[in-house]
Design brief:
2 copies of one chain form a homodimer. By secondary structure, chain A is α/β, with parallel strands linked by helices. The first copy, chain A, has 10 helices and 12 strands. In chain A, helix 2 (43-51) links the parallel strand 2 and strand 3. The termini of chain A are close together. The mean pLDDT of chain A is 93.
Chain lengths: 284, 284
């Protein structure tokens, strides 16, 4: 049987745990609740929540006074928060504390007169929330996703401030900050990448080099999982990104002695366990 | 034959020009003057200055009241400036304005409570001057010369400020700033590297937009060359990074009318010439 090494820091992060727990609690307490978008990029967990009558909100018209709505860990732009408050609903704010810190830091940079560069994925809910705080505080800025994007968009500015989506790739963050530093006179950076992310990424780097096959578990739409897979693939071409155990292909493990497993921030433990059991079966 | 545009190169910098002019003026005006250390490493210029009786100061004992001494472009620690003033000499301060700005920025970082990282060569006169201003303002900090040095010395600090020796390598500056950013919570950087490198990058940006094919010459492991190639590629996909003329592929130049050429900081002139000749041959 192959040797399976599961990354210690795989799976749910602090912020996701809080959001999932809050959603379960809301379902149990109020008998019905909404979340603004899927609470995590994990179909299985979403199913559990649906059983508790906790569902993704489809439109504001759906909401009735007194309904409970939970803001997921990604956070929202301030105007959405206000809209919800104005509707008289019971608002549960499960925005990750690390994301809230990014909001504060963006506002601080704007106050101090910096043009803001947000290192993050365009269109990602967390980034939309951060942008909302940038706009609301009257600031100007851009979102950049990769080096070419940064080089193409980077405006002539003397004073630039930087924050990052909490789950950003550290290598891109470092490269981007370095590039910006050499193209401005003054740069202020708040390193808002959360520890869970960097620890998980560092572990995947070590693991990927050490094994024959790497399995990364997590939603195909989960940005942080895709990044883990990216990092792993750069160091080990035999990297496979899956959502569930039944996607495992026995061919991948032919002659594999050491197999590494890690998972994105929104992958619950029991899915990781299922995958490990299935790999054991395949390589038995 | 295609039209080949080679990026221009800059000559003597602004600060050295000021210092040399001031020294000549001092010699002509006062009939004798000293400089604190060699003003420039160029035999012809040193000879001209000696003919004007402008020489390097060997020791303070040499100085008599009323003598003229010129502080060269590198600047000095504040206590040296005070010592000279106390000696009652005629002080000409030819410190480069860009170096003076580093002194100011170090003091600002100390005032704002940052631990200071000076990116520069230990023992270089400019760095000794900068360190003098750091110490005089009661700040704490380190000088780092390369990445190993930085990684070895970097202390656990939450808030770090960075300045650079004006002639520092941009590539090391970028890498260092990136590394520091990912190891602190808050970083403030004053990019005090003087324009030469950024001028080269700006030129590549203009050139890349104007031509059909861009050739960037320089070591494949040279960060500053790779950066030039990256910048060029973002604006012109027909960018090729080569080390030597024999890597040129005739296919690249099919139908190309305008060809741009630039090179990294460490590429000797004769290699650039060889490449240009080879392109002429290919496109003849």
């Amino acid at each position: 049987m192959a040797n399976i090494k599961v990354a210690k820091n795989a799976g749910f992060c602090f912020g996701v745990k809080i959001a999932v727990d809050s959603a379960i609690e809301a379902g149990e307490k109020y008998g019905r609740a909404y979340t603004n978008g899927p609470i995590i990029h994990n179909k299985q967990v979403v199913q559990i929540l649906e059983n508790l009558n906790v569902r993704e909100l489809q439109s504001y018209e759906q909401l009735q006074e007194g309904d409970t709505i939970l803001i997921r860990s990604h956070g929202v732009p301030p105007k959405i928060e206000r809209t919800l408050k104005d509707l008289g609903v019971n608002l549960i704010d499960a925005t990750c504390p690390f994301v809230k810190k990014v909001h504060e830091k963006v506002r601080q940079l704007v106050e101090e007169g910096y043009f803001v560069v947000i290192i993050g994925e365009k269109g990602h809910p967390e980034v939309i929330g951060i942008l909302g705080h940038l706009e609301e505080s009257g600031g100007k800025g851009i979102v950049v996703e990769n080096m070419e994007d940064l080089i193409r968009k980077f405006p002539k500015r003397n004073r630039v401030g930087v924050v990052a989506q909490t789950t950003q790739n550290e290598e891109f963050f470092e490269e981007a900050v370095g590039y910006i530093a050499s193209n401005v006179e003054e740069l202020k950076v708040f390193n808002t990448i959360c520890d869970a992310t960097s620890v998980r990424q560092e572990e995947v780097k070590r693991l990927a080099k050490d094994v024959d096959v790497m399995i990364i578990i997590g939603g195909k739409h989960s940005g942080n999982t895709r990044r883990l897979a990216q990092i792993s693939k750069a160091l080990n071409p035999n990297t496979y990104h899956i959502e569930k155990a039944d996607e495992l292909n026995p061919v991948w493990f032919k002659n594999a002695e050491n197999i590494g497993v890690s998972a994105g921030a929104s992958t619950p433990d029991w899915i990781i366990k299922e995958v490990v059991e299935k790999i054991k079966e395949i390589t038995a």
